């Protein structure tokens, strides 16, 4: 029996029996009548390790930049000019072509008050959207998921998907967590087999909170895995005919998966991807350029793919890193942990693609680090309210002004 | 209400006060009064011994190493190599500790050290400092909270992690002063009342000025950096030093309440919010306070309380990743072929010891469980006991210094179990009763009808008893119920 048939049949024929726990019944029924996604999609790419923002969006007219980075600074004539202050690192050639098409917005000086220079702490602050002196156990996208579940009989983890084997804090909610999945086939395989599937529908007679929580998680996982797999398998454009040619990199293949899921009509609003390697304390140039090139090439392929299927205005890609790096280079031809950084927004039909705000002020630093001028939560608030149509204040726990980019 | 057998009570005690018991131990202790078993857990015959993977003289701090690289004393490859070795030492310490949890030696000490590691969460990259910190919390784990607090506060690892090394007269750094109140003693608020003010934090920070550590990793009081002016903390004024702040914190009963409540949530019920729990915590905290913060006394009171063995408590706590792994090690006498396997599991499930996410420690409870962690937990017995193939990869955390920890290790996650000892404990059980007896030992929740059927389906009809026992064990360990203790 096909999984799909099984779901229908079990929901219809065994309702009222003890075989399927209540929450699961509600969920399966709910899912069958679910409309395909019509709204907007947000894709987040996290550059883990602290990408050096100053060598990404280069202040090529700034003497202080060249003075503080005698061997690391990107020569003026190599910079891909965006305006009369800043330009891209030459490795971002592919991103520059998207910029020239009006698809890229660069926001400078993004950070938060009392910045923390620890990877873990700063990543948590970005992922939970908390103040830097508070510790929060849920992520902003997990709380978005919580909010979009409220009032429903059951929650759908696949509304927020991380393309990975493990789940980031950003996607953990209080009532429901997002779904981690490298690709639909892999997760589906993991949930197949008598053990997981059988137990998911078995539930548990004992209704202690934590027992039912485990079974609820299992049932939702199996349901979501099956739903996403079925959707992608039924898609009119199966995996091997995706038009876009993606680079054979980790980000390339993950964005390809996202594109396929979007085009399959799966009801997912947010995708999350993180790539690593940006912690460039030693011998920065080759490492960073390689990573930036991979990033730009993958994003260009992704946007091209979406354009070909006429979805580029429905999908907005945001890129951030947990912090930028010191203005002054270190003695190992690298840079140490810093503070404010730039954020990229790509696609989404936002008007017009441009450099959103002023370049970093290198003459006014805080202990050698950039001062932020845009709180990252202003960006989150804008994405939640204006892009995902959600209650940003409830999700972020505070009111942040929206920015005018959407 | 389901009945809790004596053996289940003993198993419950060992799960909560340790990392489970071997079947032989659980059977043996079932014939003794709980009170005596608890006493033995509190008074181990094994004298305290530090865990040691590195001698202080072997390690050069990374800051110094970078200095040496700058001045050309060592080249870049050497620098990289030395930094890698430092990470390897911390990894070895992690593995040594988890392996120790998996043996039945002084388990309550290791269990409480794990609690204190989450309470006094700290992560630094110097292996000597980490080793010293770990042994301090292990040494004081069952002593008095006052001594533990003082000792941890003076640990170089903690002073560095919370920036007290930078806390100087006229340039105070409030990080340590704030966290010692918010996370280690008082908690931010009690209901709607704040437990301390910003002014308390400011003056406490001034009192802690001068607390630091030497290049040899010893606590030192740098008198010339100390602000010896008048401070007012919790309404009391004086020319306080750091030790005075610790004393003032211990004088406040809120410290006893806050710490007791965290211990209660760790040992008894992670969802404790109702009035029953509140009353119990208040009673326990009163006693903890009046007994001078005697940790062993508090534990004895909890572990011998009738309510501790009620069905509402037994089998309801979600095991942390480390408790899960140490529990499997303990039950089966499991030995890992590669250290990296133990790190890989911790990394994949979100709890790498000695690398807590932040000073607030691991949130715990349901936070451990999401779709991918649950699937991996259910797959784990197959990976460990039946040489299943690992096909997932934990996320890299972005820090170039911990890349080593993301590696999976070569090949599969081979581990060997002491099946002979395990099987011997069930020798008198008939083959028909074997599934239920194993479940009664492995699970602290009843084996449901559907679950039992799922388990039985995995048995091959023509397999011998030993193979049946292995398959049953691995399958029962894969149930969601096994995630609870």
Automatic annotation (TrEMBL), chain A:
InterPro entries: DUF1501. PANTHER family: BLL7424 PROTEIN, DUF1501 DOMAIN-CONTAINING PROTEIN. This is DUF1501 domain-containing protein. It comes from Fibrella forsythiae. The lineage of its organism: Bacteria, Pseudomonadati, Bacteroidota, Cytophagia, Cytophagales.
Automatic annotation (TrEMBL), chain B:
It comes from the Bacteria. This is DUF1800 domain-containing protein.
